[in-house]
Design a protein that fits this description.
The chain is of the alpha/beta class and 164 residues long. It has a single domain (11-135), classed as HybD-like (Rossmann fold). It is built from five helices and five strands. A five-stranded mixed sheet has the order 2-1-3-5-4. Helix 1 links the parallel strand 1 and strand 2 (42-47). Helix 1 (26-37) crosses helix 5 (151-163) and helix 2 packs across helix 3. It is globular and about 40 Å long. The two termini are 14 Å apart.
Length: 164
C-alpha cells in the first residue's frame, strides 16, 4: 500500500521524537516515509518537542501525530488513539495540579502541549495519535531491530487512515 493516496479533507502529519535517543526517533522516521508515500498529506515535519507543533497545525482540521511510547507493551507494537480534542482536553484539564505529569522524554509531553493549545484556542478538531512501543531510549542513533520491523506497518496505517 505504500504508494500514492487520495485525501478526503485536509490531514496534517507530524512526528515527535529525538533521533539521538534510539527508538525515540521512530516518529520522525515513520512520518518522513509516510509523507513520501502519500504526497497529498500536509507534512508538518518532525519535532523534538510536542509544544513546537503549536502554530503549525492551526489551518488543519485533522492531525496525525506519531511518537514513540514506553508502556511496557512488546517493542514495535503500534497503537492508534483517536482524540476528539475538545472532549479529551476538557476531561484532562481538571486533573489535579499535584498529580505528576505523564512520563515523557520531551520537556513537555503531548498532553501538556494539547492543554496549552486549548488555552490558546489552536487545537485541531481531531487528533489521531499513533504510538509505537520502543525498546531502547538511551543516547545514541539508530532504531532497535524490533522497532525497525514496525515501520512498514506504521506507514501503511497512516496512508490507510488518510484514505478513510
Amino acid at each position: 500500500m505504500m504508494g500514492g493516496c487520495e485525501v478526503y479533507g485536509s490531514v496534517a502529519l507530524a512526528g515527535v521524537g529525538n533521533p539521538y535517543r534510539h527508538d525515540d526517533g521512530i516518529g520522525c522516521t515513520v512520518t518522513a516515509l509516510a509523507a513520501d508515500a502519500c504526497a497529498e498529506l500536509y507534512y508538518l515535519g518532525s519535532f523534538l518537542q510536542p509544544i513546537d507543533l503549536l502554530g503549525r497545525w492551526n489551518t488543519t482540521q485533522e492531525v496525525v501525530l506519531v511518537d514513540a511510547m514506553c508502556s511496557g507493551a512488546t517493542p514495535g507494537s503500534i497503537i492508534e488513539v483517536e482524540i476528539d480534542t475538545a472532549e479529551f482536553i476538557s476531561s484532562i484539564v481538571h486533573r489535579s495540579i499535584s498529580r505528576p505529569p505523564l512520563s515523557s522524554s520531551h520537556g513537555l509531553g503531548i498532553l501538556e502541549a494539547l492543554s496549552i493549545a486549548r488555552e490558546l484556542d489552536v487545537l485541531p478538531a481531531r487528533l489521531l495519535l499513533i504510538g509505537i512501543e520502543g525498546a531502547d531510549f538511551s543516547e545514541g542513533v539508530g532504531l532497535s531491530e524490533e522497532v525497525k520491523k514496525s515501520i512498514p506497518q506504521a506507514v501503511d496505517l497512516i496512508v490507510s487512515l488518510v484514505r478513510r
